[in-house]
Amino acid sequence: MKPLAHAVLPEEVVSRIREEILTGRLPQGQKLSETELAQALSVSRAPIREGLLRLAGEGLVTLTPHRGAAVVRLSPQDTRELATLRAALEEVAWSAACTKLDDAGHRELTAIVEEMRENVAAKEHERLVRLDIDFHDKVFEIASHGRLYAAWTTIKWQAALYLLTRRAVSEDYHEIVVNEHEELLIVLTAGEPGRAVSAINRHIAGGYLRLLASYEAPEEIPEKFTTITQSSRRRV
Q1: What distances in angstroms separate CA 108 from CA 1, 43, 175, one per listed residue?
Q2: For the chain: N or C, fewer Cβ within 10 A?
């Protein structure tokens, strides 16, 4: 990690460690030493300690008595819960956002997709997960539903960790991420709630299906995704 500037704020520590996790430079299960992080960032241990507490609240870090901090390691059950809960939240968000999308929101979403494209073309894959989350986060903002957005923020960084796992186990993430989000934006622009909900469910279920394939023990497909994943299997 590059050292932070002097008079560092806890938010900067949180942001830096979060980015290290979401790029995979701090992998799942990695132990996090307050001393080593403080030295790497050239700060005292106090903001590191506060930062780890906040990252634990985001679901990215575990804090265990006598064992310290570590990056969360998502289990198959964790990914199942994240996929189904995220799908439920995104259904509401996309149904609302497709009727509220304005020119400014469209430009912002287009810019994110273009940045994805540039990163893929340059084979700079580390930022793709963050851009993926930024795209969906923007849709939740456009939906203009305060409580929905608050619910999304409680899982969005774990959803990013889920995507990082998905990226690691299946190289096609880099191949399809741009096209999938271009298609999602087209559907969102059409302003048809039913079509938008179907599209986002296919998107989430497709990623979950690919992640399932990496598990050593078979995992039951959630009923919500059964039809979608069966049709996906015929295409994969």
Answers
A1: 29, 35, 22
A2: C
Give the domain range for residue 35: 10-71
Counting as low any pLDDT under 50, the low residues of the chain are 229, 232-236
Of 47, 71, 95, the one marking the end of a domain is 71
- Tens of pLDDT, residue by residue over 148-163, are 999 999 999 999 999 9
Model pTM above 0.70: yes
The helix (H) or strand (E) run that includes residue 153 is helix 146-153
Same-domain pairing of 94 and 191: yes
Q: Count of domains in the chain?
A: 2
What is the residue-wise DSSP string for 68-133?
EEEE----HHHHHHHHHHHHHHHHHHHHHHTTT--HHHHHHHHHHHHHHHHHHHTT--TTHHHHHH
Do the Cβ atoms of 119 and 214 come closer than 8 Å?
A: no
- The CATH number linked to 119 is 1.20.120.530
Would residue 136 count as lying in a domain? yes
The pLDDT value recorded for residue 68 is 92
